[in-house]
Design a protein that fits this description.
By secondary structure, the chain is mostly beta strands. The chain has strands at about 5, 10, 20-25, 35-40, 45-50, 60, 70-75, 80-85, 90-100, 115, 120. Strands 2, 4, 5, 6, 9, 10 and 11 form a 7-stranded mixed β-sheet that branches. A 4-stranded antiparallel β-sheet has the order 1-3-8-7, with no helix packed on it. The termini are far apart.
Length: about 120
């Protein structure tokens, strides 16, 4: 079973940047679409961004378009979410997830494997 681990979260001031990483040590991520999701307190989980298995196709939520960049390095079994110009409303627990068969998308349907999540806090 694919196990994903997120890293890179923390506290940042509004306007700042963070880079989240999602990796696995057990299997190759080459065949998986990777999605990034987030869940703020009292809100439903929402899709943030997704990238195809070879990186050729990406999708972003409107709320992060132009500020966040998703990427992957299959040689390192890692996906990244570069988050710039962070806002208070970006505060959430961020999750990465793997979909073994689907195209990039922001619905959690099809993502069979999930990391445990990492906290991102944006505050002055």
């Amino acid at each position: 079973q694919l196990q994903l681990v997120e890293s890179g979260g923390g506290l940042v001031q509004p306007g700042g940047s963070l880079r989240l990483s999602c990796t696995t040590s057990q299997f190759t991520l080459d065949y998986y679409t990777i999605g990034w999701f987030r869940q703020a307190p009292g809100k439903e989980r929402e899709g943030v961004s997704s990238i195809s298995h070879n990186g050729d196709s990406v999708v972003y939520a409107d709320t992060v378009k132009g500020r966040f960049t998703i990427s992957r390095d299959n040689a390192k079994n890692t996906s990244y979410l570069q988050m710039n110009r962070l806002k208070a409303e970006d505060k959430a627990v961020y999750y990465c997830a793997g979909d073994p068969v689907g195209d990039p998308g922001l619905s959690s349907r099809g993502y069979d494997y999930w990391g445990q999540g990492i906290q991102v806090t944006v505050s002055s």
